[in-house]
Amino acid sequence: MRSKLDQRIILHVDMDSFYASVEERENPDLRGKAVAVCMFTPRGEGGGAVTTANYTARESGIHSGMSCSKARKLDPDAVFLPVNFDLYWDVSDRIMEILRGFADSFEQVSVDEAFLDVTSKVAGFDDAAKLAMQIKGEVLDKERITCSVGVAHNKLIAKMASGVRKPDGLTVIRPGEVLGFLNPLELTKLWGVGRKTEARLNEMGVSTAGELGGIEAARLVEVFGKAKGVWLHQASRGLDYSPVEERKEKEQMGRMTTFEKDTRDLDTVSEKLEDMARDVFARVEEKKLLFKTVTVTAITADFRAHTRSRTLSNPADDLETIKRVSNDLMKIFLDGTDLSLRRAGVRVSGFSRKSGQKTLFEF
Ligand code: TTP
Ligand code: MG
To answer: For the chain, where are the E strands, in sequence order?
Structure first.
């Protein structure tokens, strides 16, 4: 008999080449070019890895995790950009707010992906596909980023489905189609199966998800231990009963804003900082948190991101502190550069609870 947990409808939404897509939307000159976003190490030129590449750059074989120097050899004409984490998290926060509005329950998995349980919002899988199109449209309209969506009756299959067609894809896998989808897949395509597990399973004569499904659960538990053995047995059959649920609290709260024109006029900048400070303060106050650090982000006209932080001698919980410290920090930053600001941001971090009890993420 089918349980309620087998009758859910879950969407997995994953942004396409996320960091690169954000960079492209910020800088229209990048359209049509191969773009790779690099995280440079302090070791200097050539060090550092590609965090992601847009789909044009992927055509030359550039991918996440590759060294930037190798990527440069593959496509010397590609544009290589440094990471702007604050910018990505800001866009991510806005997208997550949009997605959350469509869901009965919501679970953000990383900077660019989330699960939405939409069971009560739709009449069935066809309806869920329509909802997914509506979500893709709204994210594109409001945030100018494309995403790919997987629709299925559990998180495991929804997650795997979202990767089937990318970019800008939509893949629906109905319960009756799950085994046909899974059986031919290579083991590493199964969510949670890495190279080590694959090697171990290969030794047991298993090389596809379908073959894994034919192995006794007891044998898998013997080789991999209880938790992993049971998971492998269930995953190979497309079973996953885990709920879609909100994760721990955030470790920082921030806001960013784009100036109408690039500027270094202190009044204009202060006015925007104050608006953002108010917004950030409202969220801190709502959660009844104290903060220890205030940070400003400045994205200058050359699209580079700079941050300046100050850690307070005592945790604070007031708007004045956010306003004063963010203004000070931005003034110091502007004094040291001739560049104008394109975007600016304010955030606070280092949270503790007013009662002295720990926040969730300190456990
Ligand atoms: P992903 O969703 O894995 O990748 P992506 O969004 O860039 O591309 P896709 O269209 O295939 O979904 O990761 C999201 C972001 O996380 C990515 O834009 C950059 C960052 N990231 C890293 O910094 N290092 C990594 O190794 C990977 C895989 C991602
Ligand atoms: Mg992605």
So the answer is: 10-15, 35-39, 49-53, 79-82, 105-110, 113-117, 147-152, 170-172, 252-263, 289-300, 305-316, 341-349, 352-353
CA distance 239 to 166: 24
Of residues 279, 272, 248, the one with CA closest to residue 362:
248
Q: pLDDT tens-digit profile of 187-230?
A: 999 988 888 899 999 999 999 999 999 999 999 999 999 989 99
Rounded to 5°, the CA angle 27-29-35 comes to: 80
Q: How do strand 252-263 and strand 341-349 relate by DSSP bridges?
A: antiparallel
Which ligand 1 atom is nearest residue 15's CA? 6
Predicted TM-score of the model (pTM): 0.81
d(CA 187, CA 170): 23
Residue 337: strand, helix, or coil: coil
Query: How far apart (Å, rounded) are the C-alpha atoms in residues 325 and 338?
Result: 21
Is the distance from the beta carbon of residue 23 to the nearest atom of ligand 1 less than 6 Å?
no
> Does the Cβ of 24 fall within 6 Å of ligand 1?
no
Query: Read out DSSP for 212-249?
Result: HHTS-HHHHHHHH-HHHHHHHHHHHTT---------PP
Of all atoms in ligand 1, which is nearest to the CA of residue 113?
2
* pLDDT tens digits, 288-334: 899 999 999 999 988 888 889 999 999 999 999 999 999 999 999 99
Cite the active site residues: 113
Are 164 and 145 a contacting pair, CB within 8 Å?
Answer: no
Three-state secondary structure call for residue 299: strand
Q: Which amino acid is at 173?
A: I
How many angstroms separate the CA atoms of 225 and 236, rounded? 16
Residue 324, token pair as written in the block: 């004063």
* Residue 88 near ligand 1, beta carbon < 6 Å: no
